[in-house]
Specification:
- Keywords: Membrane, Transmembrane, Transmembrane helix.
- This is LemA family protein.
- Its main location: membrane.
- With 196 residues, the chain is an all-alpha fold.
- Helix content is 81%, strand content 0%.
- It contains 7 helices and no strands.
- Helix 1 runs antiparallel to helix 2.
């Protein structure tokens, strides 16, 4: 009889531990899936940028530095995304992604300020369509980032609360990092010097 009670307690403990482990795995997979949505939207954004730069080139031939800065920032942002995609939630990868996306946001902001100074370019149908698509994509990135950050918070909460933290520690469930892209308002608002 005592053996059955002990066996019952061990089975209950095993089921409890398996339930916690499965919950941690589910939460980890949820934030990785949420990051995959960010990846999709950022790739869409990266695909739009060359078209935007190409359209602006004809009008902004003397603004070559601005166009080159956007292209360079896009390349760096793609590298940051590749690093983060390989290890979603890794604090170093998320910091690199946030830094490169912040730089790209700043470069795109400067380009948009320059575009505002050229009525012909601003009125160009292709430029208007690309700008609208880029704005739509930026909104999608923001929503995807929010969903990712919510999933990371749920995962981190699950791995830190007692008694889940015991199982998380036993199976090396590492904390996941949020994706917080800095928005440099001063850099975006800085008006470029336009000379003819």
């Amino acid at each position: 009889m005592i053996l059955l009670v002990i066996l019952g307690i061990l089975v209950a403990f095993a089921l409890w531990a398996v339930g916690i482990y499965n919950g941690l795995v589910t939460a980890r997979n949820a934030f990785k899936n949420a990051f995959a949505q960010i990846d999709v939207q950022l790739q869409r954004r990266f695909d739009l940028i060359p078209n935007l730069v190409e359209t602006a080139k004809g009008y902004l031939s003397h603004e070559r530095g601005t166009l080159e800065a956007v292209t360079a920032a896009r390349t760096a942002a793609q590298a940051g995304l590749s690093a983060a995609s390989a290890s979603p939630g890794d604090p170093a990868a998320m910091a690199e992604l946030a830094q490169t996306q912040g730089a790209l946001n700043g470069a795109l902001g400067r380009l948009m300020v320059v575009v505002e100074a050229y009525p012909d370019l601003k009125a160009n149908q292709n430029m208007m369509q690309l700008t609208e698509e880029l704005t739509s994509t930026e909104n999608r990135v923001a929503f995807a980032r929010q969903a990712y950050n919510d999933a990371v918070m749920a995962y981190n909460n699950r791995r830190e609360v007692f008694p889940s933290n015991i199982v998380a520690g036993m199976f090396s469930f590492a904390p996941a990092a949020l994706l917080e892209i800095p928005e440099d308002k001063a850099e975006v608002r800085e008006a470029p010097k336009v000379e003819f």
